[in-house]
Amino acid sequence: MPSATSLTHGSGRTSAQRVAVTLAVLAVLFVGTRLPVPGLDPQALSGQQFDAWSGSGQRLSVLALGVMPWFNALIVGELVWLFIPAVRRWRSDNGAAYERSVMFLAVIFAAVQAYGVAVALDQFDGLVLLPGDGFVWPAAITLFAASMLSMLMANLITREGIGSGFWLVFLSQSLFGLPATATFLLAGVRTGAYSAATLLVTPLVTIAAAVLAVALLRQRTVLGLKDHSAVVWPPLLGAVLAGWVLAFVSMRVVSADGTSTFVQAGHPVFEAIIAGLIVLLSWRYGALAGYASLGFKSGVLLAGIAVLPDLAFASLGLPPFISGSTLIIAVTVLFSFMQVWQTAEAADTGPGARGGPDTQSL
Known about the structure:
Blueprint lengths: L14 H18 L9 H5 L8 H5 L8 H16 L1 H9 L1 H28 L10 H28 L4 H11 L2 H14 L4 H4 L1 H22 L6 H20 L3 E3 L5 E3 L5 H22 L2 H24 L8 H23 L16
Antiparallel strand pairs: 1-2
């Protein structure tokens, strides 16, 4: 079975059938993000604060975890692969065993995170009908089962659908919230919270970042680098590692007027930390593949794509329509898919008719 984090495609189906399978799976997951965790108070959920169509509503749904436990396991796997030579050798020689180890770790993370989310919901005043173990354990089991279902759905897309199952499901968790974000921004224009001119920054910055990402991917393709893992993982790992730094080290910055504030997401210092980590990680990926100089240059461009949109939105007081890291993933997944599609069409076989390229990640 191909890894759901690869671009392999299911065989034995027509292109239309694979597209239909992919869309059907994503539709099921979309519905799941609108189903609240059982035991929550319907009156509380009906309030604007917990609107089922908003980002907060998704965080209260049965698919609140989605494939995030799998993502967390992959983060651990990537980090040990980057910096421990023995793990790199073992993964190279035992790819299937590595995939099983990651999935085992993902199951553990899912169980721990499901219980943690259930406990957090139970402690939220007025949200749970009958607080206590009678809510926590059923909620934890539901969240865990739904997360396992998301992982199975991702594998289903990889086997029988089109594209990378993991990355499509991972992206969907962010993209499903875009309509709510757009509605919020438009409502802000109507109420005067945002000006129309300021709001235009959102699509302009997003398009500019997407164009830069495509330019980077095309450059890699010209150089014969078709595995784009080194484009996706540095921004993701950089954001995660920067978050870990702030979780363990409370950082304060004193402004010119003497005001002291904590460094958090969107703050220039935090974004600078992310940018530095992205450059370092991109260089590391390049060095391991034998092109350290290109890895460094790509890292500088990736850092700009990842942090400049966030800085622009934060400076204007706008909520991020889509984060730089998410945009990089979306562009890379689409670009990689188009490469596979065009190659298959040129051979008159249809994408994935011969199983697709057996690549790791992207």
